[in-house]
Amino acid sequence: MKRKLLAAALSMTVTAAFFAGCAQSDLNSEESGASETTEASETAQAAETEETAGAEETAGAEEGFSYPITLTDAYGNEVTVEEEPETIVTVSPALTEIVYALGGEDKLIGRSSWDDYPEAVLDVQDVGNIDLPDTELIVSLDPDVVLASSIFSEEAYNALTDAGIPVVIIKDETSLDGLTMYIQTVADVIGLHDEGEALSMDVCDQIAEVADQVQETIAGDDITVYYCMGFGEYGDYTAGGDTFINDIIEVAGCVNVAADVEGWSYSAEQLLEADPYIILVPSWGYEDFLVTEPYSELTAVQQGRVLSVDPNLFERVGPRNAEAVRTLFEFAVDANAVAHAGA
Question: Fewer CB in 10 Å around end: N or C, the chain?
Answer without folding.
Answer: C
